[in-house]
Amino acid sequence: MRALVQRVSHANVAVEGETIGEIGKGLLILICAMAGDPSDAPQKLAIKISKLRVFRDDQGRMNRSLIDVGGSALVVSQFTLAADCKRGNRPGFSSAAPPKEGEARYLEFIEAIERLGILTATGTFGADMAVSLTNDGPVTIWLDTED
């Protein structure tokens, strides 16, 4: 699985003009299931993200996790994280998991992060979504369970 994680002071996602998920301080997590992901990938990725020390401590250093600061997560499916731009200028997405498998992994990730006690809002898998955020820092981190 791949994730692009952004530390935010606010983020929301809307479908057809209606806000369906919104958080304050926390992480916006754009997530993509990849073809051939092992079954434990959602759980491992949720644990890794929950423990990322990307929030400031009292000395202003990035030393606290999402759990430490009591932050929330906004999880949005984004198959374009699987983009392959090696040949030409049009990205290919053949390394992304098929839609049915991708949705299952997406839902497993959401369940895993909620089980860790993190308040979670979500987008809608496969929908055309508008995501708004205030990136805090900015802090943006790329994660891939294969690495």
Per DSSP E runs of 2 or more residues, the count of β-strands stands at 8
Per DSSP, the total helix count is 3
CATH class: Alpha Beta
| Structural domain tally | 1
Gross morphology:
globular
Main β-sheet, in a few words?
6 strands, mixed
Which structural class should the secondary elements be placed in?
alpha/beta
What is the arithmetic mean of pLDDT? 96
What is the H level of CATH, i.e. the homologous superfamily?
A: D-tyrosyl-tRNA(Tyr) deacylase
Query: How far is the first residue's CA from the last residue's CA?
Result: 10 Å
Poorly predicted tracts of residues: none
By CATH, the topology is D-tyrosyl-trna(Tyr) Deacylase, Chain: A
Name the CATH architecture.
Answer: 3-Layer(bba) Sandwich
**Roughly how many Å is the radius of gyration?**
15 Å
Order of helices and strands: EEEHEEHEHEE
Structural description of this entry:
The chain has a single domain, classed as D-tyrosyl-trna(Tyr) Deacylase, Chain: A (3-Layer(bba) Sandwich). Helix 1 (41-51) crosses helix 3 (99-115). With 147 residues, it is α/β, with parallel strands linked by helices. The protein has helices at residues 41-51, 66-69, 99-115; strands at 2-15, 18-23, 26-32, 55-56, 62-64, 72-77, 120-122, 129-144. Strands 1, 2, 3, 6, 7 and 8 form a 6-stranded mixed β-sheet that branches. The protein contains 3 helices and 8 strands; from the N terminus they run E-E-E-H-E-E-H-E-H-E-E. The protein is globular, with a radius of gyration of 15 Å.
